[in-house]
Amino acid sequence: MSAVSINADRLLSRIHALGEVGRDGDGRLTRLAGSDADKAGRDQLVRWLREADLEIAVDRIGNIFGVWREAGNAEKAPVLIGSHIDTVIDAGIYDGCYGVLSGLEAIQTLREAGAALGRPIAIAAFTNEEGVRYAPDMMGSLVYAGGLSLDEALATVGTDGSILGEELRRIGYAGADGPGFSKPHAYVELHVEQGPVLEREGVPIGAVENLQGISWQRITIEGVANHAGTTPMSMRRDAGYAAARVIGFLHDRATASNTPTVATVGCIAFEPNAINVIPARATFTVDLRDPDAERLKAEEAALAAYLQDLATAENMTISTERLARFEPVTFDARIVGIIEEAARGRGLASKRMTSGAGHDAQMIARIAPAAMIFVPSVGGISHNPREYTADTDLVAGANVLLDVIQRLAAE
Ligand code: GLV
Ligand code: MN
Ligand code: MN
Ligand code: MN
Where does Zn(2+) 1 bind (predicted)? Predict the structure, then answer.
């Protein structure tokens, strides 16, 4: 058993307090990157980082860092903990925030306990992890890791026509440093699983050893608008119908295969979008994921071939724009082992697993040894206001995080 444990009340009350920041008039929690709600969430986080007496830095892509370093360890590469506080639309309160606030809690606990660590510890809240307003997702950590240029990221145009760089300036989070903070000695991210595995198996801790590949595309189908009452079925060039065919193709193909491939169409818009007009244009997104790099490529190719056949058969123009493309990631086996040991030390069962969701850890893994800790999500529900993890599991995960960073900081 470890000598110190986190302050459970402080962690839980912060999770609930941050979960109230950015609720709209209908009570829906939405903190899209660069929005006023994001600013309010960031301001609250910064107040807590100050309260914990951490050095605060904001880099040029808006990533926020809270750093604890002492005279004796300041020159050493830090152990970095991170996640995000931006959300999807109508979100739950745990996705991302749990990891950031647990990192802060772990650091604060260690400081209060008078621990003297061999390395600095920093907590990061990365900009635009969700990618709902600006693609690609995991943008702040991607820029940090050198996978996307700062200028390109700042120039990203959002779904609402806004520009990320301007929004960061407007809300006061276009920092002067970096991007990034420094090359970490190691990176650990604690997150709710957002899937059903841990709950189903009754295991409180996931030691995440890999993360599946992600392919995001936007597809536009151009047909011809015409009168819904007068145009015979045989004479239509109906972009809406063609989009529905693509949705059916993706769903049926992923369902019928014996692989973990998943496919989602989460956004769709018809033009002119009227009850009595055949759609002239359909624009929709495709989110394809698979833990196997070759299979993900094959799924993309199958979709491309289907679109080509459909364009010919329905006499339409179909174009595809890539929004994000990330290969599957294998995390650092040594840190995965340390997570398992830490769980054991707390008397908790753990399970090695794959992450179905995207996380900042997959970007930081490009520049530092990285791994993740998961805790169970009740009903496997996430990206939904009903997202829930039991307090005991939240506290257990944060204590495992504390033990892991203490171990890594001693190296
Ligand atoms: C982000 O939450 C993602 O995995 O899509
Ligand atoms: Mn997340
Ligand atoms: Mn998410
Ligand atoms: Mn995510």
Answer: 84, 95, 191
CA-nearest residue, atom 3 of ligand 1 = 358
> Which atom of ligand 1 is least distant from the CA of 138?
1
d(CA 247, CA 284): 9
Ligand 3 center from residue 305 Cα (angstroms): 30
- Mean pLDDT lowest for which of 23-27, 162-166, 280-284, 288-292? 23-27
E strand intervals along 119-240: 121-125, 186-192, 205-211, 213-222
pLDDT of residue 2: 52
Give the residue, out of 32, 87, 98, 137, with the most ligand 1 atoms within 8 A of its beta carbon, to mutate for a pocket test: 137
- Interface predicted TM-score (ipTM) of this complex, two decimals: 0.93
Same-domain status, 244 and 348: no
Report the SS3 class of residue 329. Answer: strand
The span from the CA of 122 to the CA of 386, in Å, is: 30
Shared-domain flag, residues 177 and 63: yes
7, two tokens: 């302050």
Cβ–ligand 1 contact at 130 (below 6 Å): yes
The residues with which 44 forms a beta bridge, in sequence order, are none
pTM: 0.95
Which residue ranges make up the annotated binding site?
84, 95, 130, 191, 383
Using the atom order of ligand 1, give the atom closest to the CA of residue 358: 4
Question: Could you tell me if 318 and 336 lie in one domain?
Answer: no
Q: How many domains does the chain have?
A: 2
Measured from the CA of 382, which atom of ligand 1 is nearest?
2
The pLDDT of residue 1: 42
